[in-house]
Amino acid sequence: KTELSLDRDCTTLSRHVLQQLQSFSPDAQDLSAIMTRIALAGKLISRRLSRAGLMADVLGFTGETNVQGEEVKKMDVFANDVFIAVFKQSGLVCRLASEEMDDPYYIPENCPIGRYTLLYDPIDGSSNVDINLNVGSIFSIRQGIGEDLNGDASDLLQDGHQQLAAGYILYGPSTVLVYSLGHGVHSFILDPSLGEFILAQENIKIPDHGPVYSTNEGNFWQWDEAIRDYTRYVHRHEGYTARYSGALVGDMHRILLQGGVFLYPGTVKKPEGKLRLLYETAPLAFLIEQAGGRASNGEQSLLDVVPTHLHTRTPLIIGSKEDVKLVESFIEDHR
Ligand code: AHM
Ligand code: MG
Fold this sequence. Notes:
The protein is α+β, with helices and mostly antiparallel strands. Helices cover 32% and strands 23% of the residues.
């Protein structure tokens, strides 16, 4: 028994990444090191969140507005800076791009050695921070194709299949990291006494159908008829249950484990929806497809969508295969 638990405790994230890539090639070493840094960012953010109510200067707004017209929270700024800090002088990532920064952030001393770019949403669902509910970080690792001549990351405007790795960190009762390198989806739980993410579940498969539908029904009046019809269908059939936390990572984690569908469709005010492709919807689509699920923007597979700029938004329908297909069939019927 002792040996068993020891064995489990020894499957740390960095070891797992190397096992996944089954090699000690430079690329495997790089990705393992990058994942270790992302995990460090997760630990730092998790520590700060766990003390948020006790410390001055953690909760609330900074008083500024970001490029996307949203009020900036102190935790957004902190978490954004954490990711930059853990990659400085790492020689690993040459560039970071996030929801909180208009343009990519270059780490010149890492270029050109670090050929990778980290795309991330440092705190997703940040309205939950002030009320002590779950939030998450979403990340994706890509390699630019060609050169970024204008410094606006045009080389990153590629479809979601180009992601080398993607995942999220969920700050809930415990801190959970879920990732995929394109070889299945795996979860790790932060053991605070060790300061390590320990393997929890390997090769997670999402059920083909699940009971949960997760969407902000307050937007019903803003949706097009297809999505309204789908919602009416769910209201009129047994076996569905609504869950929506206002934080995508938590809602997705539930769906990954228990099945169901998450929808953030276009609205009158935001025809492209709210969520951004490169650091929100594409990484989650990569994970869900690796877990045997499906992700769509309503028109095509989400992984096929090519962004027009760094902060491009897309509608999102994601989750269990059958549930996503059902939503798509309503969209099809209204064409
Ligand atoms: P954020 O990255 O600015 O926090 O926005 C993304 C969040 C998601 O976590 C969540 O699913 C969605 O916005 C909730 O939006 P709404 O309040 O419109 O339902
Ligand atoms: Mg976000």
